[in-house]
Structures are given as structure tokens and as C-alpha cells.
Amino acid sequence: MDIVFLIILLAIFIVPTFLMSRRQRARMTEIQKLQDSVVPGDRIVTTAGQHATVISTTAETVDLEIAPGMISTFEKLAIVRVLSKANEPQMLDEPTLFDQPEDDQPNDGFDGRTDGHPENR
């Protein structure tokens, strides 16, 4: 009875640990493939949240243009996401409510201030 309980208790701790390490290993492989696949012109995000364009790559580093004319060198390990590939066409943003001309907005003479004073109406 005690041996069965001990085996069940060990399984409760070992199985989740094994599953988590397997999932982590798969995620690391995916990120490694992503980091190795970047080419000049790709838009990427670094671990610090920096959005940039890839200018050139080496085996270990990548040169990123973080602003027009401003190039920084990062480790490839800092790349966590590719926003767009260099050879993909760029999608245009769809128009939003704020893109409408002002003529379409109702003009009721009220400028939006609501502090209750008559001079603000």
C-alpha cells in the first residue's frame, strides 16, 4: 500500500514537469528557427519591445534600424517576433471612424465640456 502511494505521488510531480519541459523545448526550437530566418528588410520586435527593421545579419548578431538612419547591433537571441517579412506586401490600414471628414460629424454647438457651467455650453 505504501509503495503504491509513493509511486502515485512521484507520478503527480514527475509527469507535469516532463510535459512542461517538453513544451518549453518545442517553444525554444520555434524561436531559434524564427531568429535564424530573419533577412534584411524584415520588421521585428526585440525582447525589450523595440520595433525595428533588419539591415544585416551575421551568425550571432543582427543590425537593426530603430529609427531612420539609426542602426544598432543586437544579439539574434533578442529577436522574439517577426512582424512582417521583407518579401510580403504591406497591408494598408482600414479606415476608422476618426478618418471620416469633419463635415460628417454633427455640429450641435456643443464642444464636449460638461462641467455644468453655463458659459461652457
TrEMBL record:
One of its GO terms (cellular component) is plasma membrane. Residues 91-121 are annotated as: Disordered. This is Preprotein translocase subunit YajC. It is found in: Cell membrane. Its main location: membrane. It holds the Pfam family YajC. GO terms for biological process: protein transport. The keyword Plastid does not apply. It is a single-pass membrane protein. Residues 110-121 have a biased composition (Basic and acidic residues). The lineage of its organism: Bacteria, Bacillati, Actinomycetota, Actinomycetes, Mycobacteriales. It comes from Corynebacterium glutamicum. Keywords: Cell membrane, Membrane, Protein transport, Translocation, Transmembrane, Transmembrane helix, Transport. Belongs to the YajC family. The keyword Plastid does not apply.
